[in-house]
Structures are given as structure tokens and as C-alpha cells.
Amino acid sequence: MSPRVRVAVLDDYQNVALTSADWSAVTARADVTVFDDHVADPDELVDRLAPFDVVFVMRERTPLPRNVLERLPRLRMIASTGPANASIDMAATEELGIHVSGTGGSVASTVELTWALILAAARNLVAESRSVADGGWQTTVGRELDRRVLGVLGLGRIGSRMARIGAAFGMDVVAWSQNLTPDAAADAGVRYLPRDEFFATADVLTVHLKLSERSRGLIGAPELDAMKPTALLINTSRGPIVDEAALIDALRSGSIAGAGLDVFDTEPLPPGHPLRTLPNVTATPHVGYVADRPYRIFFRDGVAAIAEWLDGR
């Protein structure tokens, strides 16, 4: 009798993987092990995953590059949440005969989290909430968004929703990206601005691009220097789109007023990192997609994909 298939579920920080979907079609034929911690060291990761035939990854929390995949001869399938995962070396999986599946998803939760960060940063909600908890009262003066300029960097599925909500707040919505044209911006109901004018004009600049070699470091020191000293930078896309060192310098010097961040170069964010403690940063731990509906879709589709693979489909 052949040994039972072993499935590893990685980075289940909230311990909800097994309750977010019906796993019976998998557990009837495979042993499932859930890990709620994160392993960053490649050697430790290889040691952890060596006994498993299937690995279930949550978005890009644990990268699977070639130098890891080549050391996992037993691995035959990767189930990844979301339609694509840039942290999996797809060329290596094809060469090694490892099947990779994706899932559906929802962008609404990321849009909502982005607006939560904008509002929290504009109205200093973290500081005011702490003041109340500590027995104090009002400590800051917030800013209205009405008639301010919302700059949307990337007018795709998320960016276009951000633009519509910005208009509902009474904001003047402008957009720019490397591929955006004035006609496409007009079709989305926003004004196109050339690159330099875009960064100089936005009161709130929100990032909605996919991470690629072209977008990596797209917002660096020159772009941050061009922004208003009263401007807020919001990033719920991917950390490396913004040059982290340049951003920290801009926040420390006051060349921009603040940032709302859900994504970082290294995740989880290391203890003692400046972005954990800078007073003009509102930070969340990459929870844009961490909500009830996306999780149900992720785990439902991921479990179905593993079951199909066990069926030989």
C-alpha cells in the first residue's frame, strides 16, 4: 500500500484554514498539517517541507524560489491562493513537474482596507484612539478629504474602484501609470496627469500596481521629493514598489506628512524596524486580503484544486 499523501498548509496566522472550507474531500485521502508560524530561512523551510507532497501557500507569505523547489524532491503540487503568485518560480515548477493551482479572490477587501488607511492617516485615528485608551482626549487636528486631490497610481481593478470612492468623498481624482493614456483615464472618470505633475499634485497618493521589474522602486527619492510636504502616501499593493529607505528618509525629514502602509519589503516586518515606530506611519500587517469572503474563496478553491489533483485531474 502506498503511503498517504501529506499536505502542508503554510502561514495560517489566524488558525482558520481548516474551518474556512470543507476539507473532507482531501482529509479522506491525505494527512493535512497546518503551520501557523512563518519560516523565512530557506534551509529551515526545506527541512520543514521535505516530508510533504503538497504545499498550500497563502498568497506570497512564503516564497518558493528555484533554490528551495530543487531541494524538495517529494513535492508534486503547490496550491496557491489568488489567481497568480509572483513569489513562486513557475519556470522551475514546470521543469520539476510540480503542478501549481490558483484560486479566485475578491478585490473589495483591499479597496476597503486602503480607504481605512487613508481615513486613519488623515484623521490621526491611531493617536486619538490611544489617547482615549490612556485616559486623554483630543490631541491632533485632522484633515478633510473633500476637495483634496486623490492621486491613483495604477487604474486597474482596484485603482478604478478607489477612484470612484474618492469622487464620492468629493475629491479631485487624478491618475497616472506607465501604461495609462488620457483617454483611458477619461473613460474611468478621472483626469490623467503626466508623471511629474501627478506626484507634485496629489494630496493623497495611493499605489495600485502589480510588482514587476518595471514597477520595482518606481517611487523613489525623486518622486517623494516632488510630493507636497502635506501629502500622504498609501501603499496596499507591494512594498518594493516604493523605495523603502527613501520613504523612511522622507517620513523622518517631513518632506511628506505621513504614510499608510499594509505592505513592506520584508514580511513579517522585522522587530525594531523604523516603519513600526515612526509617528507619522499608520501600519497594518498585510491584511488587505485578510477578510471573511476572500478567505472562504481562497480555501474553498484551494481545497477543490488539491482534491482534483488527488483524483489525477
TrEMBL record:
Superkingdom per UniProt: Bacteria
Keyword Zinc on entry: no
InterPro entries hit by this protein: D-2-hydroxyacid_DH (IPR050857), D-isomer_DH_CS (IPR029753), D-isomer_DH_CS1 (IPR029752), D-isomer_DH_NAD-bd (IPR006140), NAD(P)-bd_dom_sf (IPR036291)
Any Pfam family matching the protein: 2-Hacid_dh_C
Entry keyword NAD: yes
Location of the D-isomer specific 2-hydroxyacid dehydrogenase NAD-binding domain: 116-288
Keywords: NAD, Oxidoreductase
GO MF, one example: oxidoreductase activity, acting on the CH-OH group of donors, NAD or NADP as acceptor
Family label: Belongs to the D-isomer specific 2-hydroxyacid dehydrogenase family.
PANTHER family listed in its UniProt record: D-ISOMER SPECIFIC 2-HYDROXYACID DEHYDROGENASE FAMILY PROTEIN (AFU_ORTHOLOGUE AFUA_6G10090)
Protein name: 2-hydroxyacid dehydrogenase
Protein source organism: Mycolicibacterium sediminis
Lineage: Bacteria, Bacillati, Actinomycetota, Actinomycetes, Mycobacteriales
Name of encoding gene: serA_1
